[in-house]
Amino acid sequence: MVVVINKMDDPTVMWSKVRFDECISKLRPYLKSCGYIIKKEVKFLPISGLGGANVKDEVDAAVCPWWKKSYTNGDNNTSVGTLIGLLDTIELKERVPDAPVRIPVLGRYTDRGTIAMGKVESGTIRAGMKVVLMPTRNEYKVEGVWANEEPVLAARPGENVLVKLGGGCAVEDCQKGFVICSKPPCRAVSKMICDIALLDMPD
């Protein structure tokens, strides 16, 4: 995980290391409670999103004299000085294209049929395949798939897609939050147990 401390160029902060360390100390207990091993899995980075400092190009040493020494020493678990540079060093976990299809529906509209919008979280969606819409368990045929607004034969994990559902699928049959699945579909439950951690409550 990369934790970015933004607005370091604010007039009340002015790239203060004290403020940067204070933000980190407040975040550590929460990140530990989420199961992260701080020294191995979490990297901290100060940036100015508005000015772009430490995003692509490293902040000027005259503005922030402590940062280069900090990351050169490997402090805060990073040896790279910029956000883009840090992201380039992270190995991405490979998504499995052969896994069951799972596409949470983010929206839908009508255009000579019902078009569902979503992101392929797992599996590969193809034109012509049959899918199950959960939680209603209605089955439909995929009449078309679009990625980046271009028609494609198939879309793989990580791609944002438009999926045209045939077989009599009306727009009201496909709601935001539904999941497009291959067989066997994902499980639907009425109750679930979860852990919720609140970092800070507003006054």
UniProtKB/TrEMBL annotation:
Residues 113-181 form the Translation elongation factor EFTu-like domain. One of its GO terms (cellular component) is chloroplast. Keywords: Cytoplasm, GTP-binding, Nucleotide-binding. InterPro entries: EFTu-like_2, P-loop_NTPase, TRAFAC_GTPase_members, Transl_B-barrel_sf. Gene3D superfamilies: P-loop containing nucleotide triphosphate hydrolases (3.40.50.300), Translation factors (2.40.30.10). It is found in: Cytoplasm; Plastid, Chloroplast. Pfam families: GTP_EFTU_D2 (PF03144). GO terms for molecular function: GTP binding. This is Translation elongation factor EFTu-like domain-containing protein.
